[in-house]
Amino acid sequence: MKKLAELYRGKAKTVYTTENPDLLILEFRNDTSAFDGLRIEQLDRKGMVNNKFNYFIMTKLHEAGIPTQVEALLSDNEVLVKKLQMIPVECVVRNRAAGSLVKRLGVEEGQVLNPPTFELFLKNDALHDPMVNDSHCKAFGWASDDQLAKMKELSFKINTILTDLFDKAGLILVDYKLEFGLFKGEITLGDEFSPDGCRLWEKSTLKKMDKDRFRQGLGGVIEAYEEVAKRIGVCL
Question: Are 98 and 200 spatial neighbours (Cβ–Cβ below 8 Å)?
Fold first, then answer.
């Protein structure tokens, strides 16, 4: 499958069309961004690590019955995916308090959330991805009741699968974001699942093993990503 025209260039990935109108190629770049793109750096190996990490996770989810857009791994930095009609809201599942939840509610970082929480955020960098609710999604036509219910159902099913996967690797899945779209009318998991879009802490030390290392200037970003990948069985 060959790349044709550049369709979209995001903060860390470039999307290309192919000769098949239903398929796209995602290219994972080494760009690493934080704070809605205000800080961008190049980190060696990052595109390769995230591409293979994402392919591994999406394959695990597909095997567990989650519809995903991933079709085939093409190269170190490229993956073939279904072309989705993306829903412009992110689903966020939180197992522990961290990040914006701590800032919004003044709760202690690391507090276990029982049951886990589910939140929706509008995908809009200019507005800093504001939190929204079901009513907003319906009123503005972003998603229907049935679509929202399916997204929530899949998000929690994914939580069960991945919490167990990371726990066996000595890691805590603190929180993560998911993006969904429609493929021939079916809600399908899109975008990526990598340490860029989730929080992972080492169980024994609570060491941060995700993009917070970049956001907070802790260093060792790619080394942490590679360690997580190694522990869960990703072949880099």
Answer: no
